[in-house]
Each structure stands twice: as structure tokens, then as C-alpha cells.
Design a protein that fits this description.
The radius of gyration is 45 Å and the shape is rod-shaped. A hairpin with a 3-residue loop joins strand 3 and strand 4. The protein has 2 domains: 186 residues, Beta-Lactamase (2-Layer Sandwich); 145 residues, Alpha-Beta Plaits, CATH 3.30.70. Helix 3 packs antiparallel against helix 5, helix 8 packs across helix 9 and helix 9 packs antiparallel against helix 10. The strands form 4 sheets. It has a 6-stranded antiparallel β-sheet with strand order 5-4-3-10-9-6. It has a 5-stranded mixed β-sheet with strand order 12-13-11-14-15, sandwiched between helices. The protein is α+β, with helices and mostly antiparallel strands. The protein contains 11 helices and 15 strands.
Length: 391
């Protein structure tokens, strides 16, 4: 679609025109509508301020109020030209929040972004006679607007004053409007800077959060790797690598052996026959059932280790033999009641240790001997060590 062509006033002379001089029609020049590339840059510059459709702000309202005070007009606006509309960031005497861009004298003002545009009588000017803007019920007849520019020269809109009667501005009023336009530009730049700082802060916070999440993920992965390295993949119980690391940890060993403790060895009865008769898949399920029975029977601070192929070692800190036997019986009963397509039992040997005694050698050996007697005595039972403990 072909854009309409408008006529602009010629550049004003250095001295301000008098009332009689501005009443005479000025020479005009024709210009095409804004070049698309220029308009795109102008629109991008405006949007960088993030000001369109924001709530009224005292600082901008004060600019409009100063404009009506300096110029003696009933109306003033801070007008910003969006894609197809003229939107007012601040306004006095005008009820509308926006108008079509085709009805904006500011559209003409920004074509000469370094000069004040004064229209003494809008109804006598063919370019603007179609514009219907009312102030307190009376039609606009006078307009004066100073363009607002970004630092790189893109025109954003104007600080303008309007009146209901034809008139002009004197030199002081013109200069005052120019000063207000500069102050508005400073306000817009402060807004843009504040928005940039908030964006940078948000980016830094997002980056820091990303680092923290990456750190947490790395720690989780490390914990998972440590867990896999120290735990049996089939049963989920600690493996011998984990037990070795536990024995090398003085604090952990002190926790386990600082009070009377108990140790038990659990062995699956006839496990080779389970594998031979039912296959290794059901053999694995049998081991998992035993491990599940152990974990359901012990406390959070107890230690359960898959010590051998079908052997499980359990350390019960701060536990006397009588209490350990009760735990062992619960494990034996739960294994026997496992939901498996064949009968499964375990034999358990239990031994007790005193503070300061090395369970890995003496107590373990006594528990192993108790386990041997349980298996020799018919299996599916719990046998307690009866070896006298040496100081």
C-alpha cells in the first residue's frame, strides 16, 4: 500500500518568529513516510526503554505539569510513537490514553528530531485539520512539540503542549519546552539503564543458580557413583569394598564399637541347589528376598553387607546378644515367609563384642563358628556364640 505524503514546515530561523510572522503560512517541503529500515531502528530504540503501556509515574507527570505551566496551555503530553499508535506516558487536559498514529502531529514532529515543531492553528493547516483531539470538550487548535531522541539519534516521540485557541510560543517558552524534552530523555535513559541492571542481575542470579544446580548435580552423581562402588548392585546392600572403607574410617568404627555390639552372619541354605533347580534368575530373586528381610528387620544405623555369594554380614551397634537374637529370628522368619515359588530358609550365627575389641577378627570368627554350628545342626535356625570372650 502506498503511504501518504505529507508536507513539513521549513527549518525555522535562528530568531524566534513573532505572533504575526507565524500566522503567515510557512514554505513547505514534501517527504515520504519513514523508510522501513529507519522505522525499524526507531521502533527498536523505543522498545529498549520498556516504557510502553506502563503505569503513570510522578516524574513524567511532573514534566507534563511543568510544560503547561511554562507554556500557559491547558494541555500537555509526553507522546511516544508505537507501531500504529500514539501512546501518552503522561498527559494533562487530554482524556485519551492513545490515538491512532495517523492522527498524531508528533508523527510529523519526529521528522525533524532536532527542532521544535509549532503549529499555530491546526484547523488552518491542511496536514492536521482532520485530527480530532479535544481538551475539556473543546477541539485542539494549537500544537507545539519537541522531539525526544535516544542517544543514537532515533526519534521516540515528543514533549508537546496543546491549546484550544490559535496561538504561538515566545522564545522562553520554546526554550523551556526543549529543556523539558531533554529532561524526559534523561528519565528514559535512567529507565533503560535500570532495566539493563535488573536484567544483568537476573542473568547473574540465573548463572549462579545454574552453577549451584550443576554443583548439586555433580555431588549427586558423585554420591551415586560412590554408592554404586560401595554397594552390591543386586541386593542394594553394602559390598566388601564399602566394608573395607568403613573399617578404615576411625569415626565410623568408633560409632560401631564404642558400646557393646553384636554381629551376625547369615547364609542362604542350599543356595547352590536353588540355582541348579530353579535357575540363576530365581536365585537372584532369592538373594534379593533375603536382603529385603534384613533391611526390614534392622535399624537405620545398623550395617548390612553382602559379604560373599550368599552370605550377609550384619553389624548391630549398641546391641546386646539377646536383642540381636530377636533381630536374627525376625530375619529368619521373614525369609521363610518370602513370596517365592519355592521354600527358602537361612541359617544365622550371632556373636557379641565389647568396646575396644576388633570385631573383624575375634567377633567375626565367633559368629562364623556359630553359623557353622547352625548349618551343622539342621539349618533354618539361629545359633548364638557361646565362646568365652577374652579381655
Amino acid at each position: 500500500m502506498t503511504r501518504p505524503r505529507y508536507r513539513l514546515p521549513a527549518a525555522p530561523t535562528q530568531s524566534a518568529p513573532t505572533q504575526s510572522e507565524t500566522a503567515v503560512p510557512e514554505p513547505v517541503v514534501e517527504f515520504p513516510h519513514a523508510d522501513p529500515a529507519i522505522e525499524a531502528r526507531r521502533q527498536a530504540a523505543l522498545e529498549a526503554y520498556h516504557v510502553l503501556d506502563t503505569q503513570p509515574e510522578q516524574a513524567y507527570d511532573d514534566i507534563a505539569r511543568l510544560a503547561v505551566t511554562i507554556c500557559g496551555t491547558p494541555g500537555a503530553m509526553i507522546s511516544l510513537l508505537d507501531h500504529d499508535r500514539q501512546w501518552f506516558k503522561a498527559r494533562i487536559g487530554v482524556d485519551l490514553e492513545q490515538t491512532p498514529r495517523s492522527h498524531a502531529i508528533c508523527e510529523h514532529a519526529i521528522r525533524t528530531p532536532d527542532r521544535l515543531l509549532v503549529v499555530p492553528d491546526t484547523k488552518a493547516d491542511d496536514r492536521f485539520s482532520h485530527i480530532d483531539l479535544n481538551l475539556a470538550g473543546a477541539p485542539m487548535r494549537f500544537y507545539a512539540g519537541m522531539p525526544l531522541r535516544s542517544p543514537d539519534g532515533n526519534a521516540l516521540g515528543t514533549v508537546c503542549v496543546v491549546d484550544t485557541v490559535p496561538r504561538d510560543l515566545d522564545r522562553a517558552q520554546r526554550e523551556g519546552l526543549e529543556v523539558l524534552a531533554r529532561q524526559t530523555q534523561h528519565l528514559l535513559e535512567l529507565r533503560r539503564y535500570a532495566h539493563q541492571q535488573r536484567r544483568l542481575l537476573a542473568e547473574r542470579e540465573a548463572f549462579a543458580q545454574g552453577l549451584e544446580e550443576a554443583r548439586a548435580d555433580l555431588l549427586l552423581r558423585n554420591e551415586q557413583l560412590q554408592h554404586r562402588a560401595h554397594h552390591d548392585q543386586l541386593t542394594g546392600l553394602m559390598n566388601r569394598v564399602g566394608l573395607a572403607q568403613l573399617r578404615e574410617n576411625p569415626q565410623a568404627m568408633a560409632r560401631l564399637t564404642s558400646a557393646p555390639y553384636s554381629l551376625m552372619l547369615i547364609d542362604v541354605d542350599h543356595f547352590k541347589q536353588v540355582n541348579d533347580r530353579h535357575g540363576h534368575l530365581l536365585g537372584d530373586r532369592a538373594l534379593q528376598a533375603v536382603a529385603d528381610a534384613v533391611e526390614r528387620s534392622i535399624r537405620g544405623g545398623d550395617v548390612a553387607v553382602r559379604y560373599g555369594g550368599e552370605e550377609i554380614l550384619v553389624v548391630l551397634p549398641s546391641t546386646r546378644l539377646a536383642d540381636a537374637v530377636e533381630v536374627a529370628e525376625r530375619i529368619r522368619t521373614r525369609v521363610k515367609q518370602s513370596a517365592l515359588p519355592f521354600s527358602l530358609t537361612v541359617s544365622v550365627g550371632v556373636a557379641g563384642g565389647e568396646p575396644g575389641m576388633a570385631f573383624a577378627e575375634q567377633v567375626f570368627d565367633r559368629a562364623d563358628q556359630a553359623l557353622y554350628r547352625a548349618k551343622a545342626g539342621g539349618r533354618d535356625c539361629v545359633v548364638v556364640d557361646d565362646t568365652p570372650m577374652l579381655a
